[in-house]
């Protein structure tokens, strides 16, 4: 009985691992195929054509900073009570 149950467990484990291996292999192949298609037909906008964005210069306005400060102050006051 124990031997039979052990064999069924091994069979089930092998079937499960085989299924996962087959799915992951198929996933890799489909991903490689899609990558080849994308390289062959490039999109209309690439990163080279986008305008540069200077994140250091984009500062929030004074009213936004005041709203954030008020929200933080209210949160801290509510948590302290």
In short:
This protein is mostly helical and 81 residues long. The protein has two helices and no strands.
| Stretches with pLDDT under 50, minimum 5 residues | none
Helix content: over 70%
The tally of beta strands, per DSSP, is 0
- Roughly what fraction of the amino acids lie in strands? under 5%
Q: Which of globular, elongated, flat, extended, rod-shaped describes the shape?
A: flat
| Arithmetic mean of pLDDT | 87
H/E order of the elements? HH
Largest sheet, in brief, is: none
Q: Could you walk me through the main structural features you see in this protein, from its secondary elements to its overall organization?
A:
The protein has 81 residues and is mainly alpha-helical. It has a domain at 1-40. It has helices spanning 2-40, 62-80. The mean pLDDT is 87.
Secondary structure elements and pairings:
Layout: H1 2-40, H2 62-80
């Amino acid at each position: 009985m124990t031997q039979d149950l052990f064999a069924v467990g091994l069979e089930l484990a092998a079937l499960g691992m085989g299924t996962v291996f087959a799915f992951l292999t198929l996933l890799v192949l489909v991903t490689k195929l899609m990558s080849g298609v994308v390289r062959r037909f490039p999109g209309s906008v690439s990163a080279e054509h986008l305008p540069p964005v200077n994140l250091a210069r984009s500062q929030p306005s004074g009213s936004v900073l005041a709203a954030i400060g008020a929200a933080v102050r209210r949160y801290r006051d509510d948590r302290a009570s």
